[in-house]
Structure formats: C-alpha cells, structure tokens
Amino acid sequence: MASVLVPIAYIIIVFGGLFVFSYFYRKHTSTQSYEPYFPSHPERNTYVTLLQSEPRASDSLLKSALVRRAMADVQRVIRIREDKPALQNLLQKGSIGDDLWNSLISAEKELEAEIIEVVGEANSFVEGWGQVIFPTANEMLANEKMRAVFEHIPTARTELEHKYEVKAKHAIAPPASPARPLNGLTPSGTENSDGDAKKIKKRK
Questions:
Q1: What is the tens place of the pLDDT at every residue in 74-109?
Q2: I need a labelling partner for 188 at 20 to 30 A (CA). Which of 92, 105, 141, 174 fits?
C-alpha cells in the first residue's frame, strides 16, 4: 500500500508546486508595467492641446493637426508590422525576453484604440472623413519621402564627388574657339571678308 501512495504523493507535490508557481507568476506579470514601445505621441498631444485651448482653434488648424496625428499613426502601424515578425522569431529562439514582446503587444493594442479615436474625431468634422483620413495620410507620407529623396540628391552627389574625386559632368557646351589657319590656308569666310574690305578701299 505504501508503495502505491509514494508515487501518488510525489505527483501531487510536483503538480501542486507547478500550479502555485504559475499562479504567482501570472499575478506578478499582470501587475508589471512594461516600458512603452513608443516613448511618446507628440502629434496627439498637439491636437489635444489645440482642441482644449481657449479660445478654441480654428477648424482648419484642427484638421491639419488631426492629419498629422494620422500620419504619425500610419508610421507606427508600418513599424509594428515590420518589427512584429522579427521579434516573434527572436522570442521563439530565446534571443529576447518577454518584456520587449509584451511591450510590443501593448503598443499594438494602444494603436488600435488610437486609430478608432482618430476616425471618430475625423467624422466629427465631416461625416465620412474617417473612412479616408488614413489613406490620405499614407499618400502624404509617400509624397514627403519622395520629396526628401529629391532634396537629398545634390548633397549625395557632392559627397560622391568628394569620395571618388570626380566632378559631375554638366550638359553645357564649351565656348566656340575662333577659326585658325590650317597649313597656311585660311577659311573661305575669312578670304571673302578680306576681299570685300579691299574692294571697299578701292572704291573710296
């Protein structure tokens, strides 16, 4: 009888210890605060400040601030989409801890609530604007990136010229040099002009 009770007691002790450990571990992690994945949201703070200012800011200024807020949200959505698969892979390999992953998940949930709030604010100005504010913000971001690339071209060209010690070729034709005699022969235009000058002198 004792031989049967010993393994049963051992199993109870092991599983009981695991249950107690998991209970306190979940309680600890549920109350633990993680470092924010995104440190701050200045565009949202600017919009809220303008919305609560006295006297109230104009609608055009509030709309511009709301679009800027949506552009910042689009950038955060892109970053989370890019970082999440990589972090998930690193987490499975044990290269990172749970803190960073939980911080990402928390930022993703906050971003979902932020998007819903922006859509509601947009609809408060113009009905239906919430459906197109984020596509508009995405297009504006693409245009800003393209403009930044074009503005950086002269600087990049100068850096490459200094790096490789080569000057950029400009499409400017060199000034035409005056005609010179070739082997004692002068161009036909020159002979005609000399003959015309002699004729004028004879007439005088």
A1: 999 999 999 999 999 999 988 888 889 999 999 999
A2: 174
Range list of H helices, the chain = 2-31, 42-52, 59-93, 98-125, 133-164, 188-203
Name the nearest CA neighbour of 61 among 75, 39, 46.
Answer: 46
What secondary structure letter does DSSP report for 131? G
Q: How far apart are CA 106 and CA 88, in angstroms?
A: 14
Number of residues in the chain: 204
Q: From CA 69, how far away is CA 4, in angstroms rounded? A: 68
| Cα 3–chain centre separation | 68
Which of 164, 4, 132 shows the shortest CA–CA distance to 66? 132
pTM of the entire predicted model = 0.62
pLDDT at 153 exceeding the cut of 60: yes
Nearest Cα to Cα of residue 59 among 39, 45, 67, 196:
67
Q: Which residue has the tokens 């049963």?
A: 8
Angular region, 167: left φ>0, alpha ψ -120 to 50, beta rest: beta
Q: Within its chain, how far is the Cα of 203 from the centroid?
A: 82
